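for the recovery benchmark. tokens below, seq after
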């Protein structure tokens, strides 16, 4: 019995061990994943805008219906022309001369994103309120315009900075004493804050996603239009948290079921073991009783033996 118990408990421990990493792991890099997946989708849809590709002209793309509210545009450029001439205007961006990319490509495509009302969904920033939509500027290899899943090129301004002139920015929520700041998300999800260079203008030396934010007023429901930002924020964070939570629930439920089954098996096994033990005992007792009676009462052997054999069955039914 001891040996079987030990192997059972080893089995239980093994199952717990196998379940654990699956319950815990999805928590790790879920922060930047949705935004990076969005970049991949928007690259694909922006490239579709090139019907008759001409260099240096912005082509507005269409997003899939489930992303309505996001604007995209794409511009194809020769690498040399970008470096020597820059781009006077590409939506809100002004790209100076001296911009380089790595690895070198002959032609590149700049993809512009305006995340509109999806800004807080993909770039939640607790403690801050967005005064402008998130704008993205990313660079890709422009040799093959049907390519999907392209990695971004490294892309930086080596001389003057790239200027981002946001249009009309929202007024800051009542109760927020801080000054607006430029926010920059790089492709790894790193956030940096810099000062504005004018009322609605930010500078950057690298690609990524940009906006203007202000610190949110201390928690007391503000009565300004910025209220709309908070439900989006909570919705997005719960969306991000959902994955690990679902995994944990599934893991716990699965583990619970396994434990219940194992426990039931254990009870069944113990009951059978007890039953077998008891039968053996009773048989042994019956056999010796039979033998005694046989010697004692010669002709009455058969009925006595039958009576003792039915007894154990009755007892087992009661104890089980
Ligand atoms: C953004 O607005 C569009 C309609 O203009 C809507 O379909 C979409 O659901 C909105 N997105 C969010 C995250 O609210
Ligand atoms: C750019 O794409 C072209 C065509 O797919 C490919 O031949 C070239 O190697 C790519 N360049 C880089 C740096 O990935
Ligand atoms: C961004 O911020 C981090 C710290 O938060 C800092 O180490 C890094 O140098 C900053 N990068 C730039 C380009 O300002």
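predicted aa per position
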């Amino acid at each position: 019995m001891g040996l079987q118990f030990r192997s059972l408990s080893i089995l239980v421990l093994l199952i717990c061990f196998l379940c654990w990493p699956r319950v815990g792991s999805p928590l790790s890099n879920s922060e930047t994943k949705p935004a990076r997946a969005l970049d991949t989708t928007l690259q694909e849809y922006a490239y579709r805008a090139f019907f008759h590709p001409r260099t240096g002209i912005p082509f507005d793309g269409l997003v899939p219906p489930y992303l309505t509210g996001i604007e995209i545009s794409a511009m194809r450029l020769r690498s040399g022309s970008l470096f020597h001439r820059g781009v006077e205007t590409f939506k809100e961006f002004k790209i100076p001369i001296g911009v380089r990319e790595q690895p070198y490509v002959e032609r590149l495509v700049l993809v512009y994103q305006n995340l509109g009302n999806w800004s807080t969904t993909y770039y939640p920033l607790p403690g801050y309120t967005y005064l402008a939509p998130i704008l993205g500027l990313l660079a890709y290899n422009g040799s093959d315009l049907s390519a999907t899943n392209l990695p971004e090129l490294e892309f930086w301004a080596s001389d003057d900075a790239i200027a981002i002139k946001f249009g009309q920015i929202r007024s800051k929520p009542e109760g927020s004493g801080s000054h607006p700041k430029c926010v920059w998300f790089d492709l790894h999800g790193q956030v940096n804050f810099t000062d504005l260079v004018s009322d609605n203008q930010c500078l950057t030396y690298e690609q990524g996603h940009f906006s203007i934010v202000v610190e949110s007023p201390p928690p007391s429901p503000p009565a300004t239009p910025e209220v709309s930002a908070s439900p989006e924020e909570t919705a997005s964070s719960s969306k991000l948290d959902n994955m690990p939570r679902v995994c944990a629930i599934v893991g716990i439920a699965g583990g619970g079921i396994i434990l219940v089954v194992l426990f039931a098996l254990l009870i069944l096994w113990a009951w059978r073991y007890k039953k077998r033990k008891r039968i053996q005992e009773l048989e042994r007792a019956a056999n010796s009783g039979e033998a005694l009676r046989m010697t004692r009462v010669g002709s009455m052997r058969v009925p006595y033996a039958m009576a003792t054999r039915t007894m154990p069955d009755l007892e087992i039914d009661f104890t089980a």
